[in-house]
Amino acid sequence: MMLPVTHVLAFGAWLVAQSKATSSAPTISIFLKPPGVIPPGGSTTICCICQHDNGNFVLYKNGQQLRTLELRGSRAEFSISNATQEDTGAYSCHYLDGGTVLARSETLEVMVQEFRLPKPVLSVLPGHEVAAGAYVIFRCTIAHSNAGCFLYLEGQIKALDLLSKEQNYFNLSHVHKGNRGRYSCQCFTKGASFEWSAVSKTLDLVVRDYAWSDVVRLVLGAGVLVLLGLIVAEAMHSHRHRPGRPGPH
User: Fold this and answer.
1) Residues in CB range of 134: below 8 A, 6 or more apart
2) What's the rounded Cα separation, in Å, for the pair 142 and 150?
3) Based on C-alpha coordinates, what's the Rg of the chain?
4) CA gap 209, 175 in Å, rounded
5) Which residues contact 156 (CB under 8 A, 6 or more apart)?
6) CA-to-CA dists, residue 92 to 29, 79, 209, angstroms
7) Its pTM surpasses 0.70
8) In sequence order, what are the residues at sequence separation of 6 or more whose Cβ sits closer than 8 angstroms to the Cβ of residue 54?
9) Main-chain dihedrals φ then ψ at residue 159, nearest 5 degrees
10) How far apart are CA 121 and CA 200, in angstroms?
11) Is 209 helix (H, G, I), strand (E, B) or coil?
12) Distances in Å between the alpha carbon of 68 and those of 33, 44, 51, 130, 172?
């Protein structure tokens, strides 16, 4: 039995509407600022970011609604101050517009623990500022023989990598602008229970994407320096081989 044309058209219109709704659904992210385990009495901020400029974010903890904030510049920030064990839990953000939930974030784990290990030191080679495509090494050093460490990038929901006691460095090959940002590390030991260090001092990685015009300027500058060097060398050579004046008779 064939369906009436009007039914087919209505079904097609519904499919188009659904596809548009799916493609326009906003994506949201959630992360801690600064990242890492926080100590009792410490503070942190749960950041929720959306591609839209209006609407509200609702913060949930362990499935229970906590607070609602309006977006400000496509983001909302929920502060935790004077942290206690009560603040430990799984947090998520729901984005609402007109009372309708349009998107849900991933789950962010917040941990509150005493710091018992020494504070680590984060370093980067070849330096804080590199050209796009460079090879970069992050190293997290702690005065403890059995500690592992997490490497954090602010704005990411999870640690970038787990650095073991055997390999306390993290490699980034062919870096790009997506790798730039504020890095830190935090270390732990696992025995009968986890023991944590404080988070290291932050380190800002700058990735320069040199344009063709910059390359041309560098080449021209190098060419000018080479030319000046040749002129000076020729002048010194000529002066050295110039015949001396005849002495008085």
Assistant:
1) 126, 174, 175, 207
2) 12
3) 30
4) 10
5) 31, 35
6) 9, 14, 35
7) yes
8) 71, 97
9) -65, 145
10) 6
11) coil
12) 19, 18, 18, 41, 38
How many residues are present in the chain?
A: 249
Cα-based angle 35, 177, 157 (whole degrees, multiple of 5): 25
Encoded tokens for 26:
């906003």
For residue 30, pLDDT over 70 is answered with yes
Spatial separation of the C-alpha atoms in residues 28 and 49, rounded to whole Å? 5
Which is nearest to 40 in space by CA: 82, 1, 7? 82
Q: Which residue has the tokens 């055997």?
A: 166
Instruction: Tell how strand 203-208 and strand 129-131 pair up.
Output: parallel
Residue 203, token pair as written in the block? 């380190």
CA distances from 74 to 54, 70, 137, 236 (A): 7, 9, 33, 65
Tokens matching residue 142: 């702690």
Residue 1: how many other CB atoms lie within 10 Å: 2
Give the helix ranges, DSSP H, for the chain: 5-23, 212-240
148-179 pLDDT per residue, tens = 999 999 999 999 888 877 777 899 889 999 99
> Quick check: 235 pLDDT over 90?
no
- Distances from the Cα of 239 to the Cαs of 226, 243, 245, 247, in angstroms? 20, 9, 13, 18
